[in-house]
Write a structure and sequence with these properties.
Layout (H helix, E strand, L loop, with lengths): L1 H10 L15 H9 L8 E2 L5 H7 L20 E3 L8 E3 L1 E3 L2 E6 L3 E6 L12 E6 L9 E5 L2 E6 L8 E14 L12 E12 L7 H9 L1 E3 L9
Antiparallel strand pairs: 1-10, 2-4, 3-12, 5-6, 6-7, 7-11, 8-9, 9-10, 10-11
Length: 227
């Protein structure tokens, strides 16, 4: 598995291999940052571990369709979520026929019922806390529960649909220049955003995507990824 992650990490373009914040108003760079699920996790005080999210970082790039598969002609219905609330998150809705695959205090993954929880992560939904600077631009401005959000549509089968929105939550993040030092952190209160990455197969429009995102909240103690 480590070899696979290494190969996938090497596949990321050199100009996207950075821990710097997004440039000011470049939606393509913002799209890349949202779609390339963070491979590097700096020290984040969130009352839990981001180990699960780190494990997903290498295999969720990209989350489009496998070769030869076309998106479904009709959209997947959004229904009330009636299962046990996952660790780190609270859900109000879920795609019909889907379930929670994995969850921790940083990342939540949803997949179709019957899909293996391990292995290929294509055609899954990723929800992740995000402690990076909020993007200044996107394809379409949206409002999620009264908070500012950006919608990033896909251009081709190699890109997923992404929505990122702000919350009222803040978390302590180590902002020490260079490599974070858990023993001597330089902490700063940082706004917590939520990123939602969706596969083509749901065939959702902006309205449905926002409706789904509006039903997602971070549980107390949950945190986010940085870098």
């Amino acid at each position: 598995m480590n070899d696979v992650r290494s190969l996938l990490a090497e596949a990321v373009p050199q100009d996207l291999r950075t821990t710097d914040h997004w440039p000011d108003a470049d939606s393509d760079v913002a799209r890349g940052r949202a779609l390339l699920v963070r491979r590097r996790r700096r020290f984040v005080l969130a009352g839990g571990t981001a180990a699960g999210a780190l494990a997903l970082a290498g295999v969720l790039v990209p989350t489009g369709h496998a070769p030869g598969r076309a998106p479904a002609a009709s959209s997947v219905a959004l229904v009330a979520y009636e299962g046990t609330q996952p660790k780190g998150y609270t859900l109000k809705t879920i795609p019909k026929g889907w379930e929670v695959a994995t969850a921790d205090n940083t990342a939540l993954v949803l997949h179709r019922i019957g899909t293996p929880k391990s292995g290929d992560f294509q055609d899954k939904i990723l929800v992740e806390g995000d402690l990076n600077a909020f993007p200044r631009s996107g394809d379409q401005a949206v409002a999620v529960n009264g908070h500012k959000g950006w919608f990033f549509g896909h251009r081709d089968a190699d890109h997923s649909v992404t929505l990122i929105f702000q919350t009222d939550e803040r978390r302590q993040v180590d902002v020490t220049p260079g490599k974070a030092n858990p023993r001597h952190p330089r902490l700063a209160s940082t706004s917590l955003n939520i990123m939602v990455q969706l596969p083509h197969s749901l065939n959702w429009d902006v309205t449905t995507t926002v409706r789904f995102a509006s039903g997602i909240t971070m549980a107390p103690g949950a945190g986010g990824a940085v870098g």
